Structure formats: structure tokens, C-alpha cells
Amino acid sequence: MPDLNAIVKAYDIRGIVPEQLDASAAYAFGVAFAKFTNASSIVVAHDMRPSGPELLDAFQRGAIAHGVDVTNVGLASSDLLYYASGKFNMPGAMFTASHNPAQYNGIKCCLAGARSIGIDNGLREMLVTATAVLDGKEPTRAVKAGTLSHINLLSEFVDHVVKFIQADTLRPLRIVADTANGMGGLVVPAVFERLGAFELEVMYGELDGTFPNHPADPLQPANQRDLQARVLAGGFDVGLAFDGDADRVFVVDEKGRGMSGSTTTALLATRFLRTHPGATILYNLICSRAVPEVIAELGGKGIRTKNGHSFMKQIMDETGAVFAGEHSGHYYFADNYRAD
Questions:
Q1: Is 41 considered catalytic here?
Q2: Catalytic residue among 77, 85, 98, 328, which?
Q3: CATH of 4-155, one of 3.50.50.60, 3.40.120.10, 1.25.40.10, 1.20.140.10
Q4: Average of per-residue pLDDT values in the chain
């Protein structure tokens, strides 16, 4: 029987399949998610990892057995799942292990409105319930089981994303995106098709959870090398490196130089302070000093926070921040349910 204590982390659930995370554990977490959220409906999705469909099926069976109606959006990036949670105002569960190697999978959970769940506001309670289920002490099932429905939200999500862009300010650019055989291969081309000013080339766009080209972790410089070489060889203006579930991105400039998440945070802060003078911007503990300096120079209010999306989203809610960035390549937007 899997040891669930080993896979429940600070912000999500993540472990090796099937040794640490199998269908029985996924079912148990489905029950636990239903009980913790006490929701009548939830939304779920999975990434391109081979184990995703089986694990998600078990998870949703657990939720359905306890009276929860499940909306399955199928293959999705994490940000698409967060959008669905916000749009439908439902708790959500995303099966992904982000940048981890192929043998891993996991679950990112959120409350209705894409509000994050971490160890201090839900995962610990879910761990207790899921462990009880595996021990044969499943809570009493609902008299009436929930239902399962499927929906494709990609087009609606793209509509949502392009609303963030001021089309009249765009200039023609040649862009190459390395989606690392992850979910960016689905989402990124769909977004750029709506943006006529840009020419896009996609590297490693096939969805393949075995990651045949390189690990889907753009934070590591070695995983940006192919992209940097392509930017130089193809004369591109910019390169974009995505992780496995496409909720992190790193930028490569026209000279093939990788930009840190801190630099990108500062650039995005500049954009937001132009449209929202005096706004509050969050940045995490390991961002460079350039970030608060840029925010202060432009008249904004910078607030330094702990690392992790749970903390970021909580402080955004408390302070009314319009944007938050992490050195790790996560960027959160108030108008996107405070999510990536």
C-alpha cells in the first residue's frame, strides 16, 4: 500500500507511479477531495504523462461515489485547469508532476475560484482522509452518486488569454517556443494563432510524457540550450521555454541569453505599473534586488513574500496586488483568478 505521507508536499501531491502513487491512492484522494471541499461539483484535468488517464479516472470515481458531479476537461495545462476552476467557480484537481521526470505524477488542487490548497489549508486534512480510505475506513458513500461530464475549454481559454494583450501595441516578432513535449505544445500554438503579429515556431511540440528530448524543467540552464541554439541559428527575436504543465516560462533574448525569472518579473511589473499606476506588485524571497528597485522607481508598492503559489495567492488577495512573480518562472495575475 502506498505511503501517502511521502507524497503529500507543501503545495501539492507528487510521487513515483505506481510505487508511491497508484490508482488506489488516486481513488482515496478523490474521496478526500470531495470530503474536504464539500462541493457539489468539481473540475478535473490531466497532462500528457502516460499514467494520467488511469489516475484521473480513479480520482473522479472516488469523488463521484461521494455524490460529486465531475466535469472533466481532458488534456490541459495547469493554467487551463485554473481557468476552469475560476470560470465555473468549482474546486479543481490537475493531474501533473510539472517538471519532474517521466516516472512521476501528482495532483495540484485548488478551491473554487482557483484559490490554492496547500499543506496548511487542506492537504493535511486530505491526507488523513485518504489514508483512512486506504486502510479500509472509507466514509459512507452518498445515497446518490455524482455524474461525469466532459468538456473542451481550449478555445474559451485562448479567448481569455488574448484579452490580456493590447493588440494595437504589438509589433511583428519571430518567436520560437520550446514546449519540452509538455502541455505547452497544445496551448501555446492555439494562443499564437490568434496573434497575427507574431511568427511562431514550436520545438518539441509533440505531447510525450516520456520527455524524449530533454527534461521539462526550464529553470535548469542545460534544458534551455537547444532553444538558445535555435534562437541564434534561426535569427529569432525571442525564445520561450515552458515546463511540463506549461505554468512556468523562461525567456531567451535575441542573442541566445537566458533571462532569469527575476528579470521577467521586473519587465512584467513595468508593464503593469504603466497601466495601473501605484499598484501593488509581489515578488518572492529569492528574486533579485532589481525587482523591488524597478517597482519603487516606477512608483509601485513592492511586497516581498515567501516562496510558493499558496503564499503568493493569499497575499495577492489580502493586498489587492495586480501581479506577482517568482524567480522560478511563475507569474500570477489578479485578472486571472490570481493564478498562473
A1: no
A2: 98
A3: 3.40.120.10
A4: 97
